[in-house]
Amino acid sequence: MAVNDPFGPKSRALYERAVRVMPGGVNSPVRAFRAVGGNPPFLRRGAGSRVVDEDGNEYIDLVGSWGPLILGHAHPEILEAIERAGRDGTSFGAPTAGEVELAERIVEAVPSIESVRLVNSGTEATMSAIRLARGATGRDRVVKFEGCYHGHGDPFLIQAGSGAATFGHPSSPGVTAGTARDTLAAPYNDLGAVERLFAEDPEGIACVIVEPVAANMGVVLPERGFLEGLRDLCDRHDALLVFDEVITGFRLAYGGAQERFGVRPDLTTLGKVIGGGLPVGAYGGRRDLMRHLAPEGPVYQAGTLSGNPLAVAAGTTMLRLLREGDVYERLERLGRRLRDGIAAMLAASDRPLCYEGIGSLGCLYFRGGPIRSWDDAAGADTERFGRYHREMLRRGVSLAPSQFEAAFLSAVHTEEEVDAVVTACRASVEAAFGDER
Ligand code: KE4
Question: CB of 248 closer than 6 A to ligand 1?
């Protein structure tokens, strides 16, 4: 039964003001709902697993700020840490104890990270990681995968996922031909294609950057041997393997996807969860590589607000809570419950649908499965996904406004909420197909 009017008068009025002063009325394109239609609800507050919009509509939140809020909105201990840090000042541009503690926790948690640099976003982390890879190897070219998204840095806006895919410009204007020449793209899960790229340029590839679970074309899992194969190819060609764990880091395990899959990259990029909802990114890896970074080495990267005291206070508290609790068992249990519920729904339906997921990440595709690459994901019926998305909002469930994104469970969602999501999903799918019976 629909309960919400997600396109209420207050959100609409705010949207009309917003578009007068900000491109598309938003500060990040996917938030504009262009891929699903309608103007976006403006959110007023979040608490735990719920968000409320300006018109008072409440939603079970499966966006979680696109990943950071693995412990839900407004976690009391994270808020207290931010407030306590703020009372001593908001920023110094000088070393502080807080950033040392966050860095120590990241080094202790992530198998491949011996040394880490904190930045302010996932994009900064990935941009910096490939500059470091190029500086350390003396090579120019980077291999990425179609449908993977590594932020909006020029080198990555080549056949990119997430919003770039949504807007039909997977290779964005403004990226120079020179940059595009140095970015090579291969289909996800296609080791042969990567092998051919190395064969064509055996001395020219600095690194291969990959989302160990691709969560920007929906959710696409690595096939058995794919990540291990990339490790082997990089070793054979003296190239570096970079895991972009901005989404999977501290989500698929405390040590991220690299702990879960047992494959060790040379560099890792992080974001989202490590900021506890505040702006933090990070990149790190082998000490011999990180030594190339200024001020120790010549590869330059800097940031006024890197290691910001409030952000590292939130991030450190988040990692402490993740390390102390039983969060990962709970995330697995809730994720399995959701997958099982949707699987039962799909088994009883002859609709062209499939669900891909792992741990607390998942995606319902409006096409038959399996989904193993961008070409598979791109075949989904995005128009029907848009109808489904609106129906889910009406039924009190907030999903990322694009077929090419993941749904994010948190440790504070309840079993009852997961069951409610499955119920809403079943009704919303039927409504989305309503014109066919
Ligand atoms: P940010 O610069 O948005 O903090 O991180 C870029 C990034 C890097 N790597 C991966 C694997 C990512 O998923 C992201 C950003 N994720 C998107 C959601 N798919 C952010 C949402 C948005 O663009 O508004």
Answer: no
By residue count, the chain amounts to 437
Is residue 125 lining ligand 1, measured as CB closer than 6 Å? Answer: no
State in words which class domain 9-74+326-433 has.
alpha beta
Which one of 130, 162, 244, 273 would you pick to mutate in the ligand 1 pocket, going by the greatest count of ligand atoms within 8 A of its CB? 162
- Tens of pLDDT, residues 36-86: 998 899 999 999 999 999 999 999 999 999 999 999 999 999 999 999 999
CA-to-CA distance for 90 and 83, rounded, in angstroms? 10
* CA separation for the pair 61, 68 (Å, rounded): 12
Q: How far is CA 120 from the centre of its chain?
A: 15
Domain ranges of the chain: 9-74+326-433, 76-324
Identify the segments of the chain with pLDDT beneath 50: 437
Q: What is the DSSP string of 152-219?
A: S-GGG-SS--HHHHHTT-SS-TT--HHHHHTEEEE-TT-HHHHHHHHHHSTTTEEEEEE-SSB-SSS-
Label residues 248-285 b or e (16+ Cβ within 10 Å = b).
bbbbbbbbbbbbbbebbbbbbbbbbbbbbbbbbbbbbb
Instruction: Give the residue numbers annotated as catalytic, written as ranges.
Output: 149, 244, 272
Per the CB < 8 A criterion, the answer to whether 219 and 369 are in contact is no
Show the tokens assigned to 182: 């140095």
User: Among 123, 270, 280, which residue has the most ligand 1 atoms within 8 Å of its CB, making it the best to mutate?
Assistant: 123
In this structure, whether the domain defined by 76-324 belongs to CATH 3.40.120.10 is answered with no
* DSSP element (H, E) containing 339: helix 327-347
